[in-house]
Every structure is written in structure tokens, then in C-alpha cells.
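Q: What would this chain look like folded?
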Amino acid sequence: MRNSHIDEYDHIDRDVVALGNDYAQRFVLPEHRHRRAQLLYGATGLMHVATQAGEWVVPPQHAVWIPPNTAHSVKFVGVSTRSLYIEPVCAAALRESDRCRVISVSPLLRQLLIEAVDLPLLYASDRDRALVQLLLLELAAMPAQEFDIPLPQHPALLAQCQNFLQAPTIHDPADRWANTLFMSPSTFRRHFLQQTGLSFSAWRQRACVVTALAWLVAGKSVNDVALSLGYDSSSAFSTMFRRVTGQAPSFYIDHN
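A: My prediction, written as C-alpha cells:
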């Protein structure tokens, strides 16, 4: 089904409901939740997904896994989507995480997602059931990508993180954050790790990588991205980016 809402079909007696939707440039879907788990795939454009636990950037040819009953909002930047809505029991067998995850989408999974949207809602033939089963098997095999930015619950630290995300820089020192929060450097580092699950330096790098993804997909040059994030050169930025993501920055420009 295309350009429909899951609430119209949530009652369907099938483990998987597949829907396709097209969204206007920079359309924002306010916070909401689904009874089923959702696999949200962007064939084009960029998606920003936010929950209380963090923020995720989803580049083209990737998808985001959203567990059942997870409150989330989505900003779409020129996106045509394909979504799978999966019954909770079935979803639990596919992916164990209770957090959103950005996952890679293989060429096979991509074709299966495109095909699934055109299936009858009450698919019943052996061929259609086999297609859905293969889709779920391929989904379970897809690796997760670290394209998320965990956010703390502590209000003052959350405000610091959100301010940083407005203009991230790889050289922002932990001591400055500690002073702002009236903590010793060692107390701040322990507090940050407890709140986000990452060390401050790992979080700062993750935030820069995820921000860079959004900028690259939007068409910003590698050199401009590198300089904006505080790197001395595009080669230094590219080395870090490839180490973290497994791809050169140009991979995401080429897929814009």
C-alpha cells in the first residue's frame, strides 16, 4: 500500500504490513508511537529520527529499526519511504535491541522492500508468504551502524549536548564542559559515561560523524565539512570518517 497510515491497517492478521509514503521536503512527523515495530527505509533523501534516548541520522539506502511502542519523531529531507510494520512477537525474534538502530540495507533487502509494498494486505499465496519470510531473514542479517547520538537524561548535561550539536567541533575540550557544569574533570567524565554509555571523546567523535553524514548527503563538500568540524585537513577528516563508518565521505555524496 502507498501513502497510507498504519493505523488503518494495524488490525490486519499478518505479521508484516508494508507501506510506502512520499514526504515533502523537510516534513516533520511529530512524536508518535506504533504498537508494531517499524523498519523505516529511505530510498532517497535523509531522515532524522529522535527519541528521548537519542538522535539518529539515516542516510539514503539505510533504514532505521524502531522497536514497538517507542515514542519518536521524524524529519524527512526529500524522502520516499518503504516501511515494514512487524508484530511485536515476530519483531523480538528479529532484533533484540530495545533502542532504535540504523541498519545497512543490502541490494536484496532493498528489492524485497520495494516488492513488499505492492503485496496484497492479506497476502496468502505461497509466493507472497515466501517473499515476506525471505525479507525477514534478510532483515535479521543486516548489521547495525553507529549513526546515533545518545543523549543524557540529566537536564544540564542534555542542554550542553544539544548546544554542541548546533555547531559540533572535534576539538571541544572536556574541561570546558566540566567547568560549565561545575564539576571536576574526572567527575564530569564519569558522569558523562553513566549518562550516555560513551566516553566524552567517543561521543564527541560520534556527534561529528553523524553531523557530517547529514551535511554530505545535503551536498556539502568534504573539505567544507572537515573545516566546519575543526579538522586541519580533509584527509585527516576522511581518515577518521572511513575508520568509523567503513566508507569514504564521497560515498554519501555520490548517493545524494
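The first strand starts at residue 16 and ends at 22.
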